[in-house]
Amino acid sequence: DGGITQSPKYLFRKEGQNVTLSCEQNLNHDAMYWYRQDPGQGLRLIYYSQIVNDFQKGDIAEGYSVSREKKESFPLTVTSAQKNPTAFYLCASSIGGASDRDYGYTFGSGTRLTVV
Amino acid sequence: QKEVEQDPGPLSVPEGAIVSLNCTYSNSAFQYFMWYRQYSRKGPELLMYTYSSGNKEDGRFTAQVDKSSKYISLFIRDSQPSDSATYLCAIWGGYNKLIFGAGTRLAVHP
Q1: Is B100 an interface residue toward A (CB < 8 Å)?
Q2: Helix or strand run (H / E) with residue A26
């Protein structure tokens, strides 16, 4: 079955530590996205990539980094510079371009990150 | 002003009630509208999408767009406990980006 796999489901980070969240898709989608979801604030875009080896900052990119070396993979690193990283992180993918207005995005099941 | 506004709720209704979920938007050029459903600790899934004005029906769900008022709605008829989730509206803003509302948390109690 085609879909998006996020791992791990739960992740605990110590102060000052970098952690990487995995996102893999087998939908042959060109575009991929990372969102952060906090209670009452909806989805906030961190980074997005429309093609391999290219990505753009979203609305809240500070303290995060990404790479897009393969079409299927878009890992997100939460660095120690991110002062309030506790949140639910969602990865999504889409066909890309104008098709997205008809088909939307496909989301993974999310990773819940907690600072301990 | 946010591009998309959505009341976060929570909204609590008895089983069998008709539910109305709403969003307003600011840009009259928007034409493609979607509703996503998100169960607790899961990712959102696309429920319905509509183009321009009018209604679209799918089983117990009806999506409605009023472009003159810049208002979109999702109606759920004969609501079930399994409909308990957060519902997010989303609007295609061009430039390959969907703009999401904050989501409304719905609880349907037996």
Answers
A1: yes
A2: none
